[in-house]
Amino acid sequence: MSEPIKTKTCFKCKQAKPTSEFYKCSNHTDGLGSNCKECDKQIANNYRRIHHTECLKTENQYNQTHRLYRQEYASQYRKTIQGHLRSIWYQMLRRCRNPQHQRFKDYGARGIHVNFACFEDFYQYVKELMRQQGFDPRTLTIDRIDNNGHYEPGNIQFVTMAENCHNRRPRKKDQLSYPSTVILNVVTEPLTDVVSHCK
Questions:
Q1: 67-78 vs 52-65: helix axis angle to the nearest 10?
Q2: Per-domain residue ranges for the chain?
Q3: What is the pLDDT of residues 152-185, one digit of tens each?
Q4: 77 with 71: CB under 8 angstroms?
Q5: Most Cβ neighbours (<10 Å): which of 9, 27, 151, 157?
């Protein structure tokens, strides 16, 4: 028998909600914040709207002070499997959803979609592929098995760059039909006569 869902009453909206709807807070005896997540977001948004200039100034100062640390952290994070896959995730979204992206014509404009609900779903699916096939995605590129299909479970694989290029759609110039034979106008005059015409 499953355990009953634990609830807590939000101090602001007075609604009883599951404890998962509250942020953790070590200062409280129950380890949870007084307000639910939704109310905390509203409070934060209202504060930012009223104190927009002050918040922007504080953020700029923080970014300047921690710029090198953030750059180093991002660099190290991208070297991890999760960081590498997150980079791939955003690249997929841009190609399929951003009309300004240079590759949108090859993806989003053709109706190609990313059919994972969120990055976590994509990450867990790739982790399962890694467990089954034993590869490291950091040395490979993502590829759709069916080039007319979507980025979705069952239609993605990780291959080398050479294999990825081989699986691309034929370009238009490659689809042009050329005549199987070429007719040349052969000079039938003797070579001496041709030379004499040129003098």
A1: 70
A2: 7-65, 80-175
A3: 999 999 999 888 777 666 655 544 444 444 434 4
A4: no
A5: 151
